[in-house]
Design a protein that fits this description.
Residues 620-671 form the RING-type domain. The protein contains 27 helices and 30 strands. It is an alpha+beta fold.
């Protein structure tokens, strides 16, 4: 259906000139019955021409029209024989405000009667929805309400301007039309308030943007300038006073919001940033009730899902595979454009935007609605796994159904929603979620050996003809004659949807036999397929007479009866973990999840404990490939748990790139420095190096006379009262490959060219280690602070290459050109990086040979120099 009001003729019982206000699209204007209707019925007669009407709607606002209230509305249809047929009659409350709707299908003429307690009645808007007759087209008519105030000349100018607006927003982007569009917007929204025309232009912007997004999505267009221009116009219109008052609220036209959110899935990064900016501008002025939030959220979740990186771990096979939506989803809608990726930055920005909406940053209505839709989106993976588990056995669910799950768009949208849920209370907002959480009426098979009436059966023995739980089966089949019984696994009990938790920013959801863990800040997650101990019931475990509870403490697989390790399978990873794992058993009966040699064991990772905010089902935020209980863990000084081998790997790898940085020594969850006795062998040398770098940076800061700079004395500065932190951030230090000591590499702002992938650690040599025999050494500070000038510019050298040449970072990246450059082509002092002409005085502040020659600057502390 569409709006076919322009194909109707309206006649009133009085004040015919005001009828045009009923179809101007604004609730601020109205038709009011006149004095002549005091003693007769107040009617509106609507005749449909060239259309097939379906719904006739009247907008009445009794709360505002206190002196002209309408208490009853009656609709009657005129038949071809002259008779009338009652369609509908409705009584209205004295505070009624809204639309009165009547079905008018197969009717050509309708008479509307109005009654009220006062001498007059008011109707603010009339709208007809239906279908155009074949061959009919939309008619561009001048705004109706202004016909009351315009003379013939103004009327013609008004109609001409409407035609120009329609033409401006109807075609492709070109220089002439871009200028025309800008002029139209300037005339309407910068100088005067022409509400009907503003409404009309807003409608044209919406239609043009929707058409352009469809072309970009389906036709593969690459030029996004037209779409960006339309979004910019929508932002400008939204910022004007008329728009802000709600009279012509472009944000309330949800097509603009939908179009901007659709572009996030496939547009270039610059356009995606513009779309997010537009959404932030438009959303606060829109009413949540007028927008299809379910569709809007689906569009917003697509770029988040594209940026997700999932590690799919099969515990039985000890395998880990990386999955992304673009690589796994083959039946995605065309509008998702899985052939185009989304950067992690855009994914995080979109996720942050959704989080801001949910947190109430715009208004409470949007917050509640968005939370409800996020909870509903989580149902996708629940419904998917439930349908797949009913179609096959538990083992087939583990093996064969994984590709089907990863190839489902519902799964990826659900995981993206899981990354954004911050509290379990959000789930209660969704009626659909509450319906699914209602206990299933399907009977659950119970263990026949238990009399508690609640223990579910997990296997069925065909020879014994009984259903048993895992523990009862292992005890009753220990005898040799029972070991050959035929055993089948029963379907797992219905998924418990309440198993959703948020721990330390990590959301987890257990559905059927899938465990989904996700860290929202990094957009990394884990999907774990647990080992099925019943897969080995009829073979090794039963033959050896071992209990099925004897599974590996790390991977959950059934233990080999010939394995000599206690509680650990023979897989190399599990054997490696057992070498550092604590062998003690906690009072609850579970093995300790910590490392050997600790004075105090960790709180149990399986049982609920108040000693830690994490448990064994949380994902390790360092590797994102396994749960905490899958390997020995350490509890850092801040209280957070991480895999022991993961933390050691981070500390051994140290900083990325040549510049010494110490952020890797902080907890990834709270940014507090890492501390643990089991890591002392790695932490002690690093802490000593950090103290050395801090002392050298503080000394240079003092000699440069910067202890009283604004960055340290301004209370609003991030470095206020933190000279050590400021010095380490201002100056760059590099680790010498020969003496393993830190040496000065220039100021941080001058070393932007020093990329982590463009250096060789063997070429990082300090001035003292690269100095030839006979070089003058400072009698006060020794050779430790000896610095060299870059051979090709007036900068401090960082690299020492070929055993003969000192380079700064910028010249090192361009060394192939510089080493072949004749000396007479080098610019005079001051020489900039890459042998370019410099400006101002020489930053070295001392005489030196021209570019192209090696030169030792001497002790850097004693010289008190400035650098590029």
């Amino acid at each position: 259906m569409r709006d076919v009001t322009s194909h109707t003729r309206i006649e009133a019982s009085s004040r015919q000139a005001m009828v045009v206000c009923l179809t101007d699209g604004s609730p601020e204007t109205f038709w009011e019955s006149g004095e002549e209707d005091k003693s007769r019925s107040r009617t509106l007669n609507v005749t449909f021409e060239g259309c097939s009407p379906v719904l006739l709607c009247l907008f009445i606002d009794n709360s505002r029209d206190e002196a002209c209230r309408t208490s009853q509305v009656a609709f009657r249809a005129a038949m071809s024989d002259g008779s009338r047929r009652d369609l509908m009659s409705k009584n209205l409350d004295q505070n009624f405000c809204g639309w009165v709707k009547c079905c008018v299908a197969n009717v050509t003429h309708v008479s509307i009667s109005l009654k009220g307690p006062h001498n007059a009645s008011r109707v603010r808007q009339l709208q007809v929805l239906g279908f155009l007759a074949e061959g009919k087209t939309e008619v561009i008519r001048p705004s109706a309400s202004h016909q009351l105030f315009f003379n013939n000349t103004q009327h013609d100018a008004f109609a001409l301007f409407q035609a120009i607006s329609a033409q401006a927003f109807s075609g492709e982007s070109c220089e002439q039309q871009d200028a025309l569009r800008e002029r139209v917007v300037d005339l309407l929204f910068s100088r005067v308030t022409l509400q009907p025309l503003q409404n009309y232009v807003c409608t044209q912007v919406e239609a043009a943007l929707e058409r352009e997004v469809e072309r970009l999505c389906c036709q593969g267009k690459r030029n996004y300038s037209y779409a960006v221009g339309l979004l910019a116009m929508a932002n400008r219109m939204c910022e004007t006073r008329a728009i802000g008052n709600g009279d012509c609220d472009v944000a309330a036209r949800h097509q603009v919001l939908q179009a901007a959110s659709r572009l996030l899935a496939f547009a270039p990064e610059a356009v995606q940033t513009q779309c997010l900016s537009s959404l932030c501008s438009l959303l606060p002025t829109a009413r949540a009730s007028t927008v299809d939030i379910s569709r809007l959220l689906r569009h917003l979740l697509v770029p988040v899902a594209k940026a997700l990186v999932l590690q799919v771990r099969d515990k039985a096979a000890h395998s880990v595979t990386t999955a992304t939506m673009n690589s796994c989803l083959t039946n995605a809608p065309l509008s998702w454009r899985t052939d185009r990726s989304v950067s992690p930055e855009i994914g995080k920005m979109t996720a942050q935007f959704i989080s801001d909406v949910c947190s109430g940053a715009f208004n409470e209505d949007w917050s509640v609605c968005m939370r409800r839709e996020l909870a509903t989106a989580l149902l996708g993976v629940v419904q998917l796994t439930t349908s797949l588990s009913k179609s096959g056995s538990r083992e087939s669910m583990n093996k064969e159904s994984v590709p089907s799950i990863l190839n489902s768009k519902r799964f990826w949208l659900s995981v993206a929603a899981l990354a954004l849920v911050r509290d379990r209370s959000w789930l209660a907002l969704s009626e659909k979620w509450n319906d699914v959480r209602t206990p299933s009426q399907e009977p659950v098979t119970l263990c026949e050996n238990h009399d508690d009436g609640m223990t579910p059966a997990q296997v069925f023995c065909s020879d014994c003809e009984c259903a048993l739980c895992r523990e009862c089966f292992s005890v009753m089949h220990l005898h040799k004659r029972n070991r050959s019984h035929r055993v089948t696994s029963l379907a797992p009990p219905p998924a418990r949807l309440e198993e959703i938790d948020i721990h330390q920013g990590c959301a987890r959801m257990r559905v059927a036999n899938l465990l989904i863990l996700f860290h929202g800040e990094s957009l990394n997650g884990l999907v774990e397929l647990p080992a099925d101990p019943f897969a080995a019931l009829t073979n090794a475990a039963i033959t050896a007479g071992r209990s099925t509870s004897s599974v590996c403490r790390f991977c959950g697989n059934a233990l080999d009866p010939h394995n000599q390790l206690v509680g650990v399978c023979s897989h190399p990873d599990c054997v490696r973990y057992s070498a550092t794992a604590c062998c003690r058993t906690l009072p609850c009966g579970h093995p300790c999840g910590g490392i050997a040699g600790e004075k105090q064991c960790l709180p149990c990772l399986i049982c609920a404990s108040e000693g830690t905010a994490q448990d064994g089902d949380d994902v390790c935020v360092v590797c994102f490939t396994d749960r905490l209980c899958a390997a020995p863990c350490v509890q850092l000084g801040c209280g957070h748990l991480l895999h022991y081998h993961c933390v050691r790997a981070v500390l051994e790898k140290r900083w990325p790139g040549p510049r010494i940085q110490f952020r890797f020594m902080n907890c990834p969850l709270c940014n507090v420095p890492i501390s643990h006795p089991g890591l002392a062998d790695l932490l002690d040398p690093l802490l000593a190096l950090k103290a050395d770098v801090a002392a050298k940076a503080n000394m240079r800061l003092e000699f440069d006379g910067l202890l009283g700079c604004t960055a340290l004395t301004d209370p609003q500065s991030e470095y206020f009262g933190k000279p050590e932190e400021y010095a380490m951030d201002r100056y760059m230090y590099v680790l010498c490959n020969v003496c393993n000591k830190a040496y000065f590499g220039g100021e941080s702002r001058c070393q932007m060219a020093l990329q982590s992938f463009q250096y060789n650690a063997a070429e990082l040599v300090c001035g003292g280690c690269s100095a030839p025999a006979g070089t003058e050494v400072c009698g006060r500070h020794g050779a430790e602070y000896l610095e060299y000038k870059c051979r090709y510019c007036c900068s401090i050298a960082v690299y020492f290459c070929f055993g003969t040449t000192h380079f700064c970072a910028a010249c090192h990246d361009d060394f192939q050109r510089l080493v072949c450059l004749p000396r007479n082509q080098f610019p005079p002092c001051p020489t900039g990086p890459r042998a370019t002409p410099g400006e101002g005085p020489c930053p070295l502040r001392r005489p030196h040979p021209p570019a192209g020659e090696e030169f030792a600057l001497g002790c850097g502390i004693c010289r008190n120099i400035s650098t590029f």
